[in-house]
Design goal:
alpha/beta, ABC transporter involved in vitamin B12 uptake, BtuC, Rossmann fold, 3 domains, six-stranded mixed sheet, four-stranded antiparallel sheet, 23 helices, binds adenosine-5'-diphosphate, binds magnesium ion
Length: 600
C-alpha cells in the first residue's frame, strides 16, 4: 500500500492540472472536460439529495432545463414584460432570476412530493420530470422543439467567454465552489441533520431536528445546483432545445451519482467523469464492433449499473480512494470554546412528569389500563414488569410518540399528547431507544452532537461558508463533554457502529444529555450490558440524579433497578400492580408472582 498523501497536496495537484488543461489539451478534450464539469455539478446535488439524504430523484434534468431556458429567454427576448425588463440581456441577472425561479418551483414540487413515502417519491420526480420536459417542447415562447438560438456568451468584467477553453474556468470554478460548500454543509449542525435523514428520522425528530425541513433543504439545494449547470450549459452551447432535459438524462444524472459513490462529494466528479468518457468511447467503439449503428452504449450502461449495484454498492469512489490514499483529517476540538448556556433545572422534589389514568387500547387489547405515575426532579423512577406488560407502550405515551386512548400525560404542567417528539424535546424531555438508534458510519462525537442540535441555530448558508465555526465548536465541545461524562472518551472519533452494544446504549445517554434535558427517559438502558458496564451506568445515573435530573427508566432487569432507584412502579398485563420503595416492592406477593410466574 502506498503511503497516504495529504489531502492538501492531492487537491493542489488536481487544481494545477485543471489550470493548465485548456492550455495544453486539444479543444475536443476541453469540451469533454466542460461537460464533465456541468454533469458533475448536477450529480453533486444528487449526492446530497440521494446519496446522503436518501431521496431519489429522476427529475434533476428538468431543473437543469429551468436554468437553461430562463437564461435563454431573458438574454434573447426582444420584448420582456415590464416587471421582468430589468433582468433582460444580462446572463448574470438571468442566473439570479433562474436560481430564484428554480428555488420557487423546487419548493412547490417539494411540498407536493417530499411527503410521499417509499416508491411514490421517485415516481413523483418522474412525473414532474416528464411534465417540465414537455412544457419546454410545447411553449411557443421557448421555441418548441427547435429551441432558442442566439444566446450571448457570459462576460466577466467585459471579457467575453466565447470559447470552450474560456468558459472552462467558469464551469470548474462553479463546480469546485459547489464541492467546497457542500462539504462544509455536511460537516455542520445542519449537515448532521441531513445525514440523519437516511435511517435516523425517528431519532433525529426526538433530538429536535426538523426532518421535513432538512428534506426540503437538500431538495432545493440539489435543484439549484442543476439550475446553475443549466445556465452554464446554455451559455456554452449558445442555444437550447428540450432534448438534454428529458427523463432519460435525469436517469443518467442519477446514474453518475450512484456510480461515483452516492455518499461522497468527490464521487459526483468521479461518476460524471467515468460516465461521460465511457459514453464517448463506447459510442465510437460499439457500433464498429457490432458493425451497425445504434445506441449500444445504453444497453452497456444498463449492464454496468447492475454490476455496480451488485458488486460495489458504495460506487467507485472507495476503489479510487484505495489507489490514491488520502490521509483523513483528524477533527480537533477547540477546548477554549465557550460552553453552551444551560436551562435551569426545576427545583429538586418538584413533580416534573405526571401520567394520569393513561389507557391505551390497540383494538381489543388494553396495553395500558388506567396507569398513573409521577416523576420528580432529582429522582429515579423505575417502571418494571415482565415482557409484554405494557412498559414500552407507556413509554410512548409519555414521550409523546403515541397518544393515550384516554387519560393524559403532563410534563412540566403541560400536556404532551399531540405535540410531536420535536416539541417535547424542546420542552426538556430527552430519551434513548430500546432498540439503539444511531448513525453507524458517523463518529461517536457526531452522533452525540445531534443531541445538541436544538442548542444551536446556524442554518445552511452560514454552514456552507464556514461562518458557523464558533457555534460548531461549542456544539462539539458540549458533545465531547457528555462523551467524557459517560466514559466513552477513548471512542470519541470511532465510528458509532464499531462500538459494542453496551457502549452504543451509553452513547445514546450521552446524546440525550447533550440536549440539556431535565427529564431523561431510558428504555431498557441495561439490556445487553455486562456487569461492569451496568455498574458504571448506575454510577452515572446516580450522579445525574444528584445534579437534580429526573429519570424514568423502563427495565425488566430487577437486580439493576433495586440498588439504584428511589421508587418502583410495577406493571403486569397493562396495569399497575405495585408501587413503592424497591425493598417494599420486592417483597410484594403480586410482584413475586408476576416475575416468578411470568416469562422472565
Ligand atoms: P413491554 O414493553 O412491557 O414488553 P409493550 O408495551 O411493548 O410491552 O406491549 C404491551 C402489549 O401491547 C403487548 O401485548 C403488545 O403485543 C401490545 N402492543 C404494543 N404495541 C402495539 C401496537 N402498536 N399494536 C398492537 N398491539 C401492540
Ligand atoms: Mg418494551
Amino acid at each position: 500500500m502506498k503511503p497516504a498523501l495529504s489531502a492538501r497536496s492531492v487537491l493542489g495537484s488536481f487544481l494545477a492540472l485543471l489550470l493548465v488543461a485548456p492550455l495544453v489539451m486539444p479543444p475536443f478534450y476541453v469540451t469533454l472536460l466542460n461537460y464533465i464539469g456541468l454533469y458533475a455539478l448536477v450529480a453533486l446535488g444528487l449526492v446530497l439529495l440521494t446519496g446522503v439524504g436518501g431521496l431519489t430523484s429522476f427529475g434533476q434534468a428538468a431543473f437543469v432545463g429551468l436554468g437553461a431556458y430562463t437564461t435563454a429567454v431573458l438574454t434573447t427576448a426582444t420584448e420582456l414584460p415590464a416587471w421582468l425588463a430589468w433582468a433582460g440581456g444580462s446572463p448574470w441577472l438571468a442566473l439570479f432570476v433562474g436560481l430564484a425561479f428554480t428555488a420557487t418551483v423546487a419548493f412547490v414540487l417539494g411540498s407536493l412530493t417530499l411527503r410521499l413515502s417509499g416508491h411514490y417519491l421517485p415516481l413523483g420526480t418522474i412525473a414532474w420530470g416528464i411534465s417540465l420536459y414537455f412544457l419546454f417542447g410545447t411553449l411557443e415562447t421557448l421555441g418548441g422543439h427547435t429551441g432558442l438560438t442566439g444566446i450571448p456568451p457570459i462576460a466577466i468584467f467585459g471579457y467575453e467567454l466565447t470559447d470552450g477553453s474560456q468558459i472552462f474556468y467558469l464551469i470548474w470554478a462553479f463546480l469546485l465552489l459547489a464541492v467546497f460548500t457542500t462539504q462544509n454543509l455536511l460537516d455542520s449542525r445542519e449537515g448532521r441533520a441531513i445525514r440523519a435523514l437516511k435511517g435516523g428520522m425517528v431519532m433525529a425528530e426526538a433530538m429536535g431536528v426538523d426532518t421535513a425541513r432538512a428534506r426540503m433543504v437538500i431538495f432545493v439545494i440539489a435543484a439549484l445546483h442543476a439550475c446553475a449547470s443549466g445556465w452554464l450549459y446554455a451559455h456554452m452551447q449558445r442555444f437550447v432545445n428540450p432534448t438534454p432535459f428529458g427523463l432519460h438524462i435525469g436517469i443518467e444524472y442519477l446514474f453518475m451519482a450512484v456510480v461515483g459513490g452516492a455518499g461522497q462529494v468527490w464521487g459526483a466528479l468521479l461518476g460524471a467523469g467515468v460516465i461521460t468518457i465511457a459514453k464517448q468511447w463506447l459510442q465510437d467503439i460499439l457500433p464498429r464492433i457490432f458493425g451497425q449503428s445504434g445506441n449500444f452504449e445504453v444497453i452497456f450502461f444498463g449492464l454496468m449499473m447492475i454490476i455496480i449495484l451488485q458488486r460495489a454498492r458504495e460506487g467507485l469512489w472507495p476503489l479510487f480512494a484505495r489507489f490514491v490514499p488520502v490521509k483523513a483529517t483528524q477533527r480537533t476540538l477547540d477546548a477554549a470554546a465557550e460552553p453552551l448556556p444551560r436551562k435551569p433545572l426545576p427545583a429538586r422534589g418538584d413533580v416534573i412528569l405526571e401520567a394520569k389514568d393513561v389507557t391505551r387500547k390497540f383494538g381489543g387489547l388494553v396495553a395500558n389500563n388506567a396507569m398513573s405515575l409521577t416523576v420528580k426532579a432529582g429522582e429515579i423512577l423505575a417502571l418494571i414488569g415482565p415482557n409484554g406488560a405494557g412498559k414500552s407502550t407507556m413509554f410512548n405515551q409519555i414521550s409523546g410518540v403515541d397518544t393515550p386512548t384516554s387519560g393524559e400525560v403532563l410534563f412540566l404542567g403541560r400536556p404532551v399528547a399531540g405535540r410531536g417528539s420535536r416539541a417535547i424535546a424542546r420542552m426538556g424531555m430527552s430519551r434513548t431507544f430500546q432498540h439503539v438508534k444511531l448513525l453507524p458510519t458517523m463518529s461517536v462525537l457526531e452522533n452525540v452532537a445531534i443531541g445538541a442540535h436544538m442548542r444551536g441555530d446556524k442554518g445552511v448558508f452560514p454552514a456552507a461558508w464556514r461562518m458557523d465555526r464558533a457555534e460548531e465548536a461549542r456544539l462539539l465541545n458540549e458533545a465531547a463533554r457528555q462523551i467524557e461524562r459517560v466514559g466513552l472518551a477513548e471512542h470519541m472519533f470511532d465510528a458509532a457502529g464499531s462500538l459494542a452494544l453496551g457502549q452504543q446504549r451509553i452513547l445514546e445517554i450521552a446524546r440525550a444529555l447533550a440536549a440539556d434535558p431535565c427529564l431523561l427517559l431510558l428504555d431498557e438502558p441495561a439490556a445487553g450490558l455486562r456487569f461492569k458496564e451496568k455498574q458504571a451506568l448506575a454510577e452515572l445515573l446516580r450522579k445525574l440524579r444528584g445534579e437534580g435530573m429526573g429519570i424514568l427508566l423502563v427495565e425488566h432487569d430487577m437486580d439493576f433497578v433495586m440498588g439504584l432507584v428511589d421508587r418502583v412502579v410495577v406493571m403486569e398485563f397493562g396495569q399497575k400492580i405495585a408501587e413503592g420503595l424497591p425493598e417494599e416492592v420486592q417483597q410484594n406477593p403480586a410482584v413475586l408472582e408476576a416475575y416468578l410466574g411470568g416469562v422472565e
